[in-house]
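During the reporting period the student researcher (J.K.) took over the structure-prediction task from the postdoctoral fellow and processed the backlog of single-chain submissions. One of the processed entries is reproduced below for the supervisory committee.
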Amino acid sequence: MMNYQNEPHGVFFLIDNKSFYASVEAVARGWNPLKISLVVMSEASNTNGGLVLATSPEAKKRYHLQANVSRAREVPQDPQLAVVPPRMNLYIKRNLQINDIFRRFVANEDLMPYSIDESILDLTHSWQLFGKSPRDVAVRIQKTVRRELGLYTTVGIGDNPVQAKLALDLYAKHDTDLIGEIHYSTVPEKIWPVNHLTDVWGIAHRTADHLNRLGIHNMYELAHVDPYELKGEMGLMGQQLYAMAWGIDRSQLNKRRGPKNASLGNSQVLPRDYVKQKEIETVIKEVGEQVASRLRHHHKQAGCVSLGIGFSYAASEADGRGGFHQEMRIAPTDQNGEIVAALIRLFRNNWDGQTVRNVAVYTSRLCASTGLQLNFFEPAQAQIKRAKTDHVVDAIRDRFGFTRLVYASSLQKGGTAIERASLVGGHNGGNAYE
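J.K. obtained the following structure tokens:
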């Protein structure tokens, strides 16, 4: 057995808002989230026919629908099934309200929102103020959220964050009390019996296949493999997987780490297959200008731009690859024209007529924007005017909204900037005032 004496021992909760989007919509309509059949469906124009973004537990059980997998054509026309559009602004508002409730139980530095529907709480120093045991505190938090917002929450409890996450996914979501626990003392009975590696957070199918080739098919075998051989085969990932199999996590919640290499970017799933070069380049230009605007808002310049193009399913099958990703160094800049010109050059050098479904633009090698670097190939006044124009456009959009001033290219066929201006996270923002 592992000697856990020197491992960090704390009290950590990982709290998930059960079927979050669907539950918020159910409560807004006065329905019980656990008893109503409800589906949140994205707009057809954004996802080529509509995608199921969320399902209530009852809808999932009755109609076997899966979030972010099932399409509109798979949703039955049943009067007992409510199908509603997303309202991302409302979900963000509820998320903020839920985390404000969590702050009644932990200091701000001991709370880390993990996603829009999950948060990690370090109650090591505060749980005794609210109950006789961590489980009592979990029940109190659940009741508070349920009473004030009408939402159900599931809670994973552990001696460290990874134990809390595994307790949430493997046990809390299937327990009648919606609470699960894993501790160092219960690792052999709680983690090792898991026979399907993909049931465990952080192990996707490709990682599971890699482990299978090494003779590892379940969590028990992962915990009892030679850790040095696993590291030699999989590097740092192998170390992390081995530690997880033993329930070990040495991360400190109150010591937040930023990215080693900062970057700014945006990506977009296109509403349909794009075949024409002019339409594809219109979207690349729109996304590139959006990224350049973000650079200016952060007072940064980029010394490197990268373009990712994702092919459609049929094009991927024919080409043998899912797309391409290329980058190039440029003189540090935050100007629309220079960034877009580099992106178009990357696209024309690497695209060979494939059908496109995804566009991603990222900038890196960021530095502070302290001035404008002039060149000798055009008048200085023209360069200064172009830079000022970008900033004026930013200011107008900030004050009056993006759609009040758009480039004519966005009005052409294939342009998506105007439609996406009203979206939040790629979906309908809706009304947050509920």
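The committee noted the following: The two ends are 53 Å apart (CA to CA).
J.K. will present the remaining backlog at the next meeting.
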